[in-house]
Hints:
- The protein has 192 residues and is α+β, with helices and mostly antiparallel strands.
- It contains seven helices and four strands.
Amino acid sequence: MGKHTQQSLEKLSASLKKKWASGTRKPNPPETYVKSSATRKQGIAEGRIVIKGGWTSETAKEAQRKVDIYKLTQINREHARQRIGSRNPPGPSCRGPGHWKSKFWVVKDPNNRTRIFINLSEFIRSNSNMFDAKDVIWKKSSCGASKRIAQLFAKKKAPNSWKGWRALTQEELDRESDFIEEQKIKLRQSLL
């Protein structure tokens, strides 16, 4: 209840009710707000009153965006609760080359063959016989093989190879660029 005790609140309430009943305390006339609003606007226009961090059209739009995002999040959560136990429809959330995070990969396998594919995880799932059994133990959406092959393309401290798998050197990329471009086009067309 804050600083007031129940007894002091009752005393305050009783005194206010007395003042309202006696007529000593009256509500402000409606013109007061119109006058004060006009005075405030005039003060702002003249520069006498400065608003710091108040509501502007930009802050109002930002607040509305946050409310909209919150509503969308709630709708999505409710939709997800209703669909528990049912499979996702095919689309950008599906497995395979159509996944929204899938990337284009060009690697050399242990037999020195150039492998070109979209979506590393899907490639490993469909070609698990090319990897050791202990490297294709899936945890959530990745396995040891997918992590190690992805590390071959890291910007910093990338290893040269992993169990015979390696990224192409710049010379190999230049030499095979036509073949790679043809394969990219074929893969993209297969997604359509």
